[in-house]
Amino acid sequence: MIGRRWFVPWFWLAPALLLTGIFLLYPTVDTVRQSFLKEDSNGFIGLNLDNYRFIIDNPQPLVADTHSALLNNLMWLTVFTAITVVLGLVIAVLASRVRYEAVAKSAIFIPMAISFVAASVIWRFMYEFNPDIGTVNAVLTEAGGNATRWLQDTGAPQTPFTDAGPNTLPNPLQINNFALVFVGVWMWTGFAMVVLSAGLKGISTEILEAARVDGANEWQIFWRIIIPNLSPTIVVVATTLVIQALKKFDLVWVMTAGRFETDVVATQFYKEAFLFGNPRLGAAMAVVLLLWVLPIMVISIRRFQFQEETR
User: Fold this and answer.
1) What is the phi/psi pair of residue 291, to 5°?
2) Are 285 and 272 in contact (CB under 8 A)?
3) pLDDT in tens, 266-293
4) Is the separation of the CB atoms in 297 and 246 below 8 Å?
5) CA neighbours closer than 13 Å in the CB half-sphere of residue 110
6) Alpha-carbon dihedral of residues 18, 20, 26, 28, nearest 10 degrees?
7) What angle do CA 149, 64, 291 make, to 5 degrees?
8) Predicted local confidence at residue 59, as pLDDT
9) Count of CB atoms situated within 10 Å of the CB of 234
10) Per-residue pLDDT tens for 11-55?
11) What is the model's pTM?
12) What is the per-residue pLDDT for 49?
């Protein structure tokens, strides 16, 4: 009887599998195929790596600065993730010690309720150079400072990457990149705080009280009890943020459209595919982004499986 009904689970899974194949698997495979096309070819003729060489060689930095996009993504991956995790953890720990914990957490989480496009538009006005419009420059000028073009200023500390020369790399540590990252941190800190706060609630109060009785101060409790017990949750939050940083598109596109050396891989492949008329190069950039995200997703899934097995 059971053998006759082997098809029943597949019958119920079929609609989901069909939609996944049409809207996820097929576009992925076709994007990989297009990334190997030649400029004068519409059909697949083998493993042509010219499009990937274009990304590495970066022959037209004034038109499509692929090196800048890759380094900006790396900057988002490290700076955005680190700051958001640290702020989320600090706020989660501090909020758990006050009576108005729910109110404080709600205030921090509010940006997550706003769409990313709407938040980007809001911060475009916040960063406006004219102090009569831009809140940030209004506060800055009232404090005696000078108005700054936050989204256009590419000023960065001089490093070996910024020395003049044909083979040098662009410097992602620009004022406008940090301004964009700040908006991302503002939006995602609430998510990190909520998840880490849930993990913090799972730590036994008996362990904390025992540590205090043994003479441990709050700093020692934080580093030797809270952090080790929260490490699985921190990894989950960091993995989620890394994937978001690698896929970042909407915020950058709405606020700068990738101008002023703020392009990331997602905005670069959109430009190549839909604005510059180079779908094969855009597909290659999309595949590069996929290759960045895929290992992180695999590691995350394996970690979830390991945690489920050890419970």
Assistant:
1) -70, -25
2) yes
3) 998 888 888 888 888 888 888 988 888 8
4) no
5) 6
6) -170
7) 105
8) 67
9) 18
10) 889 999 999 999 989 988 988 888 888 776 666 666 778 888 888
11) 0.83
12) 80
Task: Name residue, tokens 């025992």.
Answer: 210
Please tell me the distance from the alpha carbon of residue 58 to that of residue 51, in angstroms, as a whole number.
10
The predicted pLDDT at position 195 comes to 92
Backbone angles phi, psi at 32, to 5 degrees: -60, -40
Half-sphere exposure of 199 (CA within 13 A, CB side): 23
Return the ∠ at Cα 113 (arms to 110 and 118), rounded to 5°.
Answer: 105
Name the residue type at position 290.
L
Place of tokens 């800048």: 68
Burial class (CB in 10 A: 0-12, 13-18, 19+), 250: middle
User: Which of the given ranges, 52-61, 147-156, 184-193, 202-211, has the highest pLDDT on average?
Assistant: 184-193
Nearest C-alpha neighbor of 69 from the set 301, 253, 238: 253
Contact status, residue 160 vs residue 169, Cβ threshold 8 Å: no
Is pLDDT of 64 > 80?
no
What is d(CA 224, CA 215) in angstroms, rounded to the nearest whole number?
13
How many degrees, rounded to 5, is the angle at CA 178 between CA 82 and CA 64? 110
| CA–CA dist 33, 29 (Å, integer) | 6
Residue count (the chain) = 311
What tokens appear for 84 in the block?
């958001």
Alpha helix positions (H), the chain: 7-20, 26-34, 50-57, 66-75, 81-95, 101-109, 116-126, 135-142, 175-201, 205-213, 218-221, 227-246, 250-255, 265-270, 279-310
Amino acid 8 reads: V
Q: Are 66 and 258 in contact (CB under 8 A)?
A: no
Residue 195 is encoded by which pair of tokens?
A: 């998840």
Cα distance between residue 257 and residue 8, in whole Å: 49
Residues 180, 135, 187: CA angle, nearest 5 degrees: 40
Chain Cα centroid distance, residue 226: 26
